[in-house]
């Protein structure tokens, strides 16, 4: 998948997830996915195969 296609896919996915969610639900989802991304980046930086 090319870079622009990936960005478009992520945007479409975010809009689909956000549909019919309350502001509170969106805040929780945002925090969840931010923490997930940060944790994945940390594991990648540590070159860890398994937790």
Description:
The protein has 51 residues and is mainly α. The longest helix is centred in the middle third of the chain and has 23 residues. The chain is built from two helices and no strands.
List descriptors.
mainly alpha
Describe the secondary structure blueprint for this structure.
Blueprint (H helix, E strand, L loop, with lengths): L2 H16 L4 H23 L6
CA-CA gap between termini: 28 Å
Rg for CA atoms: 14 Å
Multimerization status: single chain
Compute the number of strand runs.
0
Structural shape: flat
pLDDT < 50 runs, ≥5 residues? none
Strand content: under 5%
Percent in helix: over 70%
Quick synopsis:
This protein is mainly α and 51 residues long.
């Amino acid at each position: 998948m090319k870079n622009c296609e990936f960005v478009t896919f992520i945007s479409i996915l975010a809009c689909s997830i956000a549909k019919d969610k309350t502001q509170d639900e969106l805040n929780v989802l945002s925090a969840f996915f931010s923490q997930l991304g940060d944790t994945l980046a940390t594991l990648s930086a540590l070159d860890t195969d398994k937790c």
